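Need tokens for this chain, all 129 residues.
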Amino acid sequence: MIYFDGECNLCNRFVQYVINHDPQGLFRFSSLQSDYARSRGFEIPKTSDGSLETMLVEWGGQILNYSEGVLRVFQHLSGLNKVAVIFRIIPRPLRDMLYRWIARRRYFFFGKAESCMVPTEEMRGRFLG
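Here are the structure tokens for all 129 residues:
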């Protein structure tokens, strides 16, 4: 399960990318702003301006965030995406620092959607909440 910022264009593009490279349909999705995600009771880190700082990946009973969540997703996608796990050679504090830098600037670089993404009929079964 991938919990993402539904108002973030970068996050929405990431979800689209995962859908296109996950032919087995391993991943399900929920916006962090949804009632479903809120009902899960996650502690979601926020930036100093109050925006969401990370997506969350629920995998094997664990909640992964920052760079570790992204790398876990890429590890299970098709094709050359698995190569992304090579970034695990970089110490997690450095990877997470880069992740946070991008997260704080994602609205500036990629924009902010007025509302959460509405899945197409084909994708609807992969979204909760």
